[in-house]
């Protein structure tokens, strides 16, 4: 055995700058769950590629350790800073996109967000969802159809939004009425829906923690453009989690969490007919069946 | 403007699965610190590449958010779980390698570890560092030289190790004497050093938290092979942070934090001459000057 071969043999299992990925991943045991093994090997590969390409310094590594620690330590039952971090780095939207590839014509998904609450009241079509007397009233309406434009009956439309001050009811439990700006509507045979809410307003994500610091250092603002949340479930169709965004909002092209898609920008028309609502927003939702993907 | 061009123009700033990296990185402001901008752009690129290659599911993303949150929340003044995570994924060693590229012949770096304490007593050559009466005594000795074998005078050798039970003094402040198995030695004109400690023992990294869970799921043990820590500083030379590892240790090729390098495995010879120590370990340290890199 010449010296080079001897050296190679002796170094099996020893970490070097060049073999770092292989050495770490070779350490996994033989009975690791295959999916876990695949995801972790992929993580190590890209994590090391990052450190290598950035030529990360020791000080930067220490800063990152401190940043991640602070991010974990600010989390509470009501605040999830790692979700904010994922959102503001575009990871949440990417994972959403990867898991919701739909054919052209189907309504696109966007991020779920942290403010949905299961169990909102089922209301009758045309009912109000806003009960704090604030904001500019808006009639929302449209149809739920399949890709061929046929109405979907029995679609369960779960809708939620912030109030005129930019807060969801769960953020102000002592101020807002329970289930303010929330409701569930179930379509009939015609697939139509309608309800009266308010024209939502843009608001900042919580920016008094590590993620807010990061945004400030990156020269980014923390605002989300005004949007209505929808989750639509119907038997035989893919679940749709999406928003509609208020046309003309100044943050449409700079959403702090990258949630906007062009097809989700909805018209908000001023109503000047002396009726009950100041605005009207029409939007049709197109559901895809489980096998309808791209 | 044809439809494709119009669509492209309209989508500037909107996130898609394909343009995710560019969209996120284009959001940075114009006056971002150049190094921060470079590191963050690189992070986003590799983070997205990971999610894309792994086709990360929504459930896996949620698990990761929970895992990172638990990792942050178990951290205290005495415990740094994110460092353990970095260590066990090989990231710490990679960053160490990137930042300490030395020419052949210079002693290699390895991870600093969390147990160094600044301010250990300066002792005379040949002095003891172990004061709890436990373990197998060992005489450590050798030389500190430059790459040409010339002795380095005034090198400050900071040494620390666990005790025979596998704990550092700072982990057992009520049990071990202060500065147990620690000391600082300063070389004279001949570059020699020597001190009496114990033959160190292998020990597990803390494995009762998220990182321990991860290791268990990956079929990995939490042990580090027995090692002595050294930090050697001398004017006109690169700082050397390293270990020597006990020859023959069963964990040499499976160190939980990947710290072992072949050149750092030191001989530990049994002494049968009726002297004061049971073992003897000789190891020469070779320092590189700041401009001596590869």
Q: How would you summarize the topology of this molecule?
A:
Two copies of one chain form a homodimer.
Chain A: H1 3-10, H2 20-26, H3 34-54, H4 58-73, H5 81-88, H6 91-98, E1 137-145, E2 156-160, E3 182-186, E4 192-198, E5 203-204, H7 210-217, E6 223-224, E7 227-233, E8 240-246, E9 265-266, E10 269-270, E11 279-282, E12 285-286
Parallel strand pairs in A: 1-11, 1-12, 8-9
Antiparallel strand pairs in A: 1-4, 2-3, 2-7, 5-6, 7-8, 10-11
Helix pairs in contact in A: 2-3
Uncertain parts of chain A: none
Q: Per the principal axes of the C-alpha atoms, what is the gross shape of chain A? A: globular
In whole angstroms, the N-to-C terminal distance of chain A is 55 Å
How many distinct helices of chain A?
7
Give the count of structural domains of chain A: 2
Assign the structural class of chain A, choosing from mainly alpha, mainly beta, alpha/beta, alpha+beta, or little secondary structure.
Answer: alpha/beta
Oligomer: homodimer
Number of strands of chain A: 12
Q: Estimate percent helicity of chain A.
A: 25-40%
- Computed over alpha carbons, the radius of gyration of chain A is 24 Å
The secondary-structure element order of chain A is HHHHHHEEEEEHEEEEEEE
Integer average pLDDT of chain A: 94
């Amino acid at each position: 055995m010449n010296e080079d071969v001897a050296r190679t043999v002796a170094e099996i299992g020893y970490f070097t700058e060049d073999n770092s990925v292989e050495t770490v991943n070779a350490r996994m045991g033989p009975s690791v769950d295959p999916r876990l093994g695949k995801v972790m090997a992929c993580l190590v590969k890209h994590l090391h590629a990052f450190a290598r390409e950035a030529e990360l310094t020791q000080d930067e590594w220490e800063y990152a350790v401190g940043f991640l620690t602070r991010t974990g330590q600010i989390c509470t039952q009501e605040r999830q800073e790692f979700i904010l971090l994922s959102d503001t780095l575009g990871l949440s939207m990417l994972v959403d996109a990867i898991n919701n590839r739909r054919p052209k014509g189907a309504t696109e998904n966007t991020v779920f967000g942290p403010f949905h609450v299961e169990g909102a009241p089922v209301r009758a079509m045309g009912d109000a969802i806003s009960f704090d007397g604030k904001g500019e009233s808006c009639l929302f309406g449209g149809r739920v159809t399949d890709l061929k434009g046929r109405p979907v009956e029995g679609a369960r439309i779960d809708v939620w939004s912030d109030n005129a001050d930019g807060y969801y009811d769960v953020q102000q439990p002592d101020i807002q009425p329970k289930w303010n700006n929330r409701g569930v509507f179930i379509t009939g045979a015609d697939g139509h829906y309608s309800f009266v809410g308010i024209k939502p307003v843009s608001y900042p994500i919580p920016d008094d923690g590590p993620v807010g610091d990061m945004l400030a250092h990156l020269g980014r603002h923390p605002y989300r453009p005004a949007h209505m949340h929808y989750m639509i479930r119907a038997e035989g169709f893919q679940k749709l989690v999406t928003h509609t965004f208020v046309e003309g909002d100044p943050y449409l092209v700079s959403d702090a969490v990258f949630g906007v898609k062009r097809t989700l920008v909805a018209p908000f028309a001023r109503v000047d007919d002396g009726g009950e609502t100041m605005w009207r927003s029409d939007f049709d939702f197109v559901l895809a069946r489980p096998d309808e993907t791209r």
